[in-house]
Specification:
5 helices; 25% helix; four-stranded mixed beta sheet; elongated
Length: 316
């Protein structure tokens, strides 16, 4: 009887030890860090309205190996079933090259027939994903050996991640895309130059219903939030309308826009707006009107019939 009890006790002790060992083994496995370098890969939502990112780990030792891994991931189905592969049949990678800090990606012909929103999302996803590699700063996209162009036929050339507004992150509680990252230009202390400021914030409304160009203007009018830069636009200015056509952003302000703020000069006010809007991938020119009228001279310097283009010469 004692022998049986002893056998049972030994068995129970052995069994418990086995359970403990297995628990430690499984716990150890579950806590192991994935191997490789973590990168954020951008994918397109199935309704093709936004981007979302997934963390993937790449193991390539050289920059070229890492580029190949990321391009393969962009062509692959993401883990999130609400998303689709960024590069699908017809827009797949034909080849690529890497020189200096730039990757040039050649895509299939179907890229040229993508809807405008899908094309911008695809472009942004490729650039953001590849520039996650530390040695890659610029990305050029080509089709049939030619760089892609904007709606005005202007070659886009080399692109960087900060050219694309980050309006694609979804709030997990509401399902609303409302986080924004912008590059804005405000006045310097003396009012004769511009300072570029990166601003990231959460908007309190559904971003899908708010034009990004309007948010840029609202943020400029609201002014800077730190002491590094100063207002460039009269804070009493009201936006009457803002529309985009063929890469040109048309804005109508009320009369308050004509009133200077502090000692800011004319060029700083104008190019604060133009340069900030030109950071958006679908805008490259700006025209301003007052109460819908363009037969106005802005502070005795600019006829508002002028269509302004980006000018970084006064950026400090």
């Amino acid at each position: 009887m004692r022998t049986n009890r002893l056998c049972i006790n030994v068995f129970m002790v052995s069994f418990c030890c086995l359970i403990i060992i297995m628990s430690v083994m499984f716990t150890g496995c579950s806590n192991e860090e994935p191997e490789g370098m973590p990168v954020e890969i951008s994918y397109i939502s199935k309704n093709e309205t936004r981007l979302e990112t997934e963390i993937h780990y790449i193991n390539g030792k050289s920059t070229k190996e890492q580029i190949v891994e990321i391009l393969r991931l962009l062509c692959s189905v993401p883990d999130n079933k609400e998303l689709r592969a960024t590069l699908i049949s017809g827009t797949n990678v034909i080849n690529y090259s890497y020189e200096g800090e730039q990757v040039t990606v050649s895509l299939g012909d179907k890229y040229l027939s993508l809807p405008k929103t899908t094309e911008i999302l695809t472009r942004a996803a490729i650039v953001r994903s590849l520039t996650a590699i530390p040695e890659v700063k610029y990305v050029m996209i080509t089709v049939n050996g030619k760089p892609i162009v904007d709606s005005n036929g202007t070659e886009l050339g080399s692109m960087t991640a900060d050219m694309f507004v980050d309006d694609t992150v979804t709030n997990p509680e509401t399902g609303v895309s409302n986080r924004v990252k912008l590059k804005l230009y405000f006045a310097n202390e003396t009012g004769d130059g511009l300072i570029a400021i990166n601003r990231e914030f959460t908007h309190n409304v559904d971003m899908s219903n708010v034009p990004m160009e309007k948010i840029v203007l609202e943020q400029l009018i609201a002014g800077p939030v730190n002491s590094l830069s100063y207002p460039s636009i009269n804070p009493d200015t009201k936006i009457q309308s803002v529309t985009i056509q063929d890469g040109v952003c048309y804005i109508s302000f009320d009369n308050s826009f004509l009133t200077p703020v502090n000692n800011v000069n004319t060029d700083v006010t104008i190019y604060s707006i133009v340069n900030s809007l030109a950071e958006l991938s679908n805008i490259n020119k700006v025209q301003i009107s007052i109460d819908g009228k363009m037969d106005v001279k802005f502070r005795d310097k600019y006829e508002l019939t002028t269509i302004f283009e980006r000018d970084l010469s006064i950026v400090n």
